[in-house]
Amino acid sequence: MTLLALCAAAGWAIGLVLRPLVDRVTAERSEGRPPTGRTRSMAPVTAVVFGATAWSFGWTWPLPAYLALAAFLVALTFIDLDTKTLPRRIVWAAGLAGVLLLAAASLAAGEPHRILQATAGAAVAFVLLCGLHILAPGGLGFGDVRLGAVLGWYLGWQSLSLMLTGLAAAFVVSAAVGVVLMACGRAGRRTEVPFGPALAIGAFLVLLTAAPGLPLH
């Protein structure tokens, strides 16, 4: 419980720090549209996600990497909801953080093979999503492909099968959101719904339910 409380408090603080960045990026990409005010909830959302991550991973070597991923995904989700874009520099920053932190976790836990496993996960996710991007133009943006590759690293670090499950979960979340929006009259069959949030939510939920046990020692 101590770890959960500490991580939730850290998440709240990080959410407050991230909010001006997200507001600035959103303003740059919104083409003059007024702000929606969604970012007012960034601090509590980040706190909840950090708490859930701490609850799932506990005192384990990969915990810092997945907390970093949580912060990046919250920021990217808020940006994508308002602008339907995923800024390349933020996506690649999330990827760099994952490479460094999970490589360090692999070595600290004495499981260096996980680095190759994560690399394979990123590569397979990129190929699969890039194929969908090519086959269905407009259905999947290249920003989603980049984010999928980054998530493939984090998911693949645990297992390649988990990477596939995470991607499948993203499409399930996207379909469920679309159905709910149409049922509520908020969207039609041709309404463009950003895929990034579904990708982030689906993959991260899978990560939380399959958190590895690599305790500190």
Describe this structure in words.
With 217 residues, the chain is an all-alpha fold. The protein has one domain. It is 75% helix and 0% strand. Helix 2 runs antiparallel to helix 3 and helix 4 packs parallel to helix 6. The longest helix has 28 residues. 42% of the residues are buried. The mean pLDDT is 89.
Quick structural gist:
This protein has 217 residues and is mainly α.
The total number of structural domains is 1
Cα-based radius of gyration, to the nearest Å: 17 Å
Largest sheet: none
Low-confidence stretches: none
How many beta-strand segments? Answer: 0
Strand content: under 5%
The multimeric state of the shown protein is single chain
Distance between the termini: 20 Å
Helicity, in percent? over 70%
Count of alpha and pi helical runs: 8
| Strand and helix order | HHHHHHHH
What is the molecular shape? globular
* Average of the residue pLDDT scores: 89
Q: What structural class is derived from the secondary structure elements?
A: mainly alpha
Secondary structure blueprint with pairings:
Elements: H1 2-29, H2 42-57, H3 63-83, H4 88-108, H5 113-135, H6 142-156, H7 160-183, H8 196-209
Helix pairs in contact: 1-2, 1-3, 2-3, 3-4, 3-8, 4-6, 5-6, 5-7, 6-7, 6-8, 7-8
